[in-house]
Structures are given as structure tokens and as C-alpha cells.
UniProtKB/TrEMBL annotation:
One of its GO terms (biological process) is methylation. The active site is at 274 (proton acceptor). Keywords: Methyltransferase, S-adenosyl-L-methionine, Transferase. GO terms for molecular function: O-methyltransferase activity; protein dimerization activity; S-adenosylmethionine-dependent methyltransferase activity. CDD domains: AdoMet_MTases. Residues 26-118 form the O-methyltransferase dimerisation domain. This is Isoliquiritigenin 2'-O-methyltransferase-like.
Amino acid sequence: MSSTTNNNNNNSKEEYDDAFTKAASFAFAQVFPAILNAAIDMNLFDIISKAESSLGMSASEIASKIPKQHSEMGSRLERMLPSLVARSLLTCSIRTINEDGDTERVYAVSPVGKYYTSTHHDEQGGSWIVMSTITYQGCRHIWKDTKDAILDANNHNHFQKVYGKMAFEYMETDTELGNLFGQAMSQAGSLGLKQVLNAYKGFEGVSTLVDVGGGYGQTLKQILFQYPSIKAINFDLPHVVKNAPPHPGIEHIGGDMFKTVPKADAILLKHVCHNWGDEECVKFLRNCYEALPPHGKVIVLDALLPEIPKSTSFKDTQAVDLDFLMFLVNGGKERTEKQFEKLCKTSGFSRFQVACNDSSNVVAVMEFYK
């Protein structure tokens, strides 16, 4: 009996300690985004990635590469770099610096941190640098009074209430934010697509493909690398496609998906549906339906919202966080599998299927068949 009692007490203590630690981490949750974006603004990941030593660089060595110099720079960096280590963005080791045995920390960019280097965008076709910046800084005002998005019955679109216009309309007039958004979609939009293309074979046999909301055409470039015979059309708003660079096999067309969509064998909607409510989605999905031949398909790439989120699943955490972000910024939403199927059938399509839903990738692939 005493052994059972001790085990129960130990379990209770572990549960208490775990609950306390998690609760405390949420209380300080605003600190790390500030550190990460300061590191991005100071170009720290690029600086550290260019270290001459394979072990990395000390804080003082990093400080020497920052244009704005002062005597306390190194010691101040030491106050933020360990936080990046704790989140696996940097690695850290100890280096002995003299015969007396004095040591210093040495920092290197981890595989996670490489996603925040400019070379990762150039070499791997994607980066999280600009997406992090636009979420933290570009949309900084929407984080104020977030509760009003819930409590205010007249607040039907939080971004519109804060900025005076819907998000996409506002970015047409605020060129700085619009360009930042375009860069974010270009740099981050193709991340994870390599995994999708390795698992999903639904582009085989497609002769013409329209990417609706394709931005600067980065997604199509990756698809054409694997399927070079496809004739591709990058379709987006005129002010977006005018900045899209030319690429062999891709035709850039400006237009409005709520009015018409270019005809093709297959139509791609990557991170488009989550920007809109159901009524708006049905409008452009019906235009997609009209643009397809018999038995054509719409390929939807979006997060699948879990029915019950698992606290141990990063994929579930990202999906529910994205859902709230879409709610604040666009009045849109992520959707469950059942909600996507309903959207499919309401728009007139005959068949719905989840073609690919890899547990390691937050993006699922769904097909709507005409």
C-alpha cells in the first residue's frame, strides 16, 4: 500500500511540475518572437553561418561583423543568443580561450536556423525570414486588443477594423506591406512543397496547370522542375503578377478569381481557401469548376484542421494557430476534412479525396474532381 501511495505521490508531483513549467512558459511567450525578429533584423543567422571555424563564432566575433559597433555589443548579444539555442535555431559549444582555462560560448547555425539564412532561400528555394517579419512587424497592430475580435459583435474583420480596409485591398495602397507580403509568399510559399512533390503524384499526366493565387510563380517553378512538360499559368491579381519574373514554361496572367479563371486540365489552389470564408470560396471554386474539362480536378494545398488538437503534435499546433491568424487577418479559416468535403460538394464537384496528408508536413493535398 505504501509503495502505491508513493508512486501516486510521485506521479502527482511530476504532473504538477509539468503543468507549472508549461504555464510559466506561456506567461513569457511574447519574449521569444521579439528575440527572433531582432536576430533577423541584425542579420545574425547569415553572419554566424559564414563563420570561418566549423564550431561557429563567439558573441564578440559576431558583434565585430555588425555594422553598428559599441563596446557592450558582445555582452548584449550573450543575453539573446542562448534563447535561440534553447529553441534549436543555434547550436552552442564551449571553447577554452587561454592557458588559465577561461572559456567562452561559441555559436553555430543549426539545421532549423538555416531556414532563417538568405542562402537557404537561394539554394533550397525557400526561407522563413520575411514571413516571420510580416507576422511580427507587418501585422503588429492586429495583435493589439485581440479580444475585440471575439467580443465586439460589430468586428467582422479585425484587420479591416484596425487598418480601415480589407487586407488585400490595404496591401494595394501600402506598397511596403504589399511587397513584404509578396516576398513572404515567394520565400515561404515553396517551403514544404518538396515533401509534397515526393509524396503526391497527381501532377503526372497533367498537360496544362493554372496556379490560382500563385504570387510570383515560385510554386510552379518547383512543379515544372519535376514535371517539365506541363504548360503552366501563374494567375494572380494584376499588381502581383507585374512583379513576377519570367520563367520558361510559365505564363503570368493577371485577373480576378472571383470573376473568371483561365482554363486548364488541373487548377492548383495553394494556401488560397484559408484566406476566405465559405461563401467566397464557393464563388471562386465554381469559377474553377467552369474552367475545367470533364473529369478535371482542383488540387487544394492547405492545412487540415484537427477535430481535436493533440498537444504533442506540432502539426496540430501550427494548424490551429494558423486558423486564428486567418481569422484576424482575412476573416478566413483553416478547415477540417469534413468542412473541405462540404466545400467541394457545395461548389458542384462530384468527388472529394485527401490525396496526401503526411504527418511531418502541415500541408495536406486534397483533390476536387469535376
